[in-house]
């Protein structure tokens, strides 16, 4: 229907006129026309064909608007609209797509900050420049950043966590087809990269079922998936769609006889594949997505291991297939013995509804107990974080008392099933801009453990930020640096900090670096984790849970830890309770 197009053009005219501060009545007439046409039941093109006069009878459509409607029906364009666009930064209109941003706010942002598009606005908001404008504040600044992220979803890479939700759901749905013998994801998703370009799904059928007719039923089932927004390709063995969430899904169907070779190939990374292929060539073999070949004879490929075996390598986990040393390490027999979820014995960072968590302490502790951990730490925000109702000393001490009671209670429970369960007293203590911690040493000394984190003044210079954090690490009570770079995936850049210097200081002062498992943090990232390990720093993997449902985020921390080549020994919360505290006694501040 042409109505939508006409309504959109009129709305855009109204928006531009409003940003340009034109006559209010003129603006309103375009706005009203856009609204009316948008809600019109009959098609304007049809009306024009049958009885053009009937268009003029629509309320609010005078001679001038009528002519424009006819112009758009005939030419697809409106000259006045085109003229307006020519003298107008086009990015300003994108800003109108943000929640809570109308033409008035766009004008405010444009005239005061000179921002001409979403990118410049994002930069200004991240630098904290938006909050000081009249009618804005910290909250609207945050809202703008969040909204920019939403708008850009289509063009941006999807965070791992979001892609996994989509992929798991579609896999569950695909299993309804009886020819699907095995189904799993490949590509960057299987390698657990922190963001995903598109989802690659591989379906394996038995050899007997691998007929064009059967495969067609799989493909037809796939494109009928309820959350499909667009079908990009619908082929005999490969189809691609875009889901409502905006992410693309590529699905391929394979025969069990060569499934392993395909799984290896489509897991990538591309650079890893190329190196494997070249190694095979040197051995007189050919490796590709169809199998391992000697001449034209298929000599392997049912299992992924066949590919590695063919080139004389042990199995390499997907998370490190990035051609940044894994093949060399495998040749030397020096692959990491990668950490696994079951190695984790405790979680040392979580919040309750005393600050910004969703649940009370009893519920959080109960959820934690049920995970089977040996120890947990309650770490609500400290007093300077007033926006999240950070605990002053009085409330903190009261919470500590409550933890004493809970420990007594759980000792009873733990006694029954003969397991250890320790609830530790802590806080997520703000590292203040001057590098001091948000409670006195006297208070800090009463805590068992606490991550200390930067939550304010992100815009310091690199030297200042590095100095700030290192000064905090010199505090003899500090044992964990929380989310060390402060980044939020797709939403907020890390603050500027010399991470190598931080890692060195962490080793010197016996401070562990946190791997925060919140899906949009994953902070430290894989690259820094690998550097930290190489230098000899210790890591703690925490969930920073604000709800019991977030305890499951530990898995995401583990994915990233594996990508960072971490082993059990690199991660302190794989230690039993006594050993953990002995470690800190021995390696604590000097
Ligand atoms: P993404 O989707 O951008 O997050 O990253 P990937 O790694 O999932 O890349 P994608 O979806 O383009 O392709 C999936 C895998 O297929 C990739 O990891 C390796 C393999 N692959 C794709 N193109 C090539 C190629 O030209 N050569 C080789 N050797 N492998 C390729
Ligand atoms: Ca992909
Ligand atoms: Ca793909
Ligand atoms: Zn925090």
CATH architecture of the largest domain: Alpha-Beta Barrel
Q: Which parts are unreliable, with pLDDT below 50 for 5 consecutive residues or more?
A: none
CATH C-level class of the largest domain is Alpha Beta
In CATH, what is the homologous superfamily of the largest domain?
Answer: Metal-dependent hydrolases
Average of per-residue pLDDT values: 93
> Helix- and strand-based class?
alpha/beta
Number of strands: 18
The N- to C-terminal Cα distance equals 74 Å
Biggest sheet record: 5 strands, mixed
Strand content: 5-15%
At the fold tier of CATH, the topology name of the largest domain is TIM Barrel
Question: What quaternary form is this?
Answer: single chain
Rg for CA atoms? 29 Å
* Strand arrangement, major sheet: 2-4-7-6-5
In total, the number of domains comes to 3
Shape: globular
The portion of residues assigned to helices is 40-55%
Compounds present? 2'-deoxyguanosine-5'-triphosphate, calcium ion, zinc ion
Please report the number of helical segments: 25
Describe the structure in your own words.
The chain has 590 residues and is α/β, with parallel strands linked by helices. It folds into 3 domains: 2-154, DNA polymerase, domain 1; 267-335, Beta Polymerase, domain 3, CATH 3.30.210; 347-587, Metal-dependent hydrolases (TIM Barrel, Alpha-Beta Barrel), CATH 3.20.20. The protein has 25 helices and 18 strands. The chain has a 5-stranded mixed sheet with strand order 2-4-7-6-5, sandwiched between helices. Helix 22 (499-509) links the parallel strand 16 and strand 17. The longest helix has 25 residues, at 393-417. The protein is globular, with a radius of gyration of 29 Å. The mean pLDDT is 93. Zinc ion (ZN) is lined by residues 428, 453, 455, 482-483.
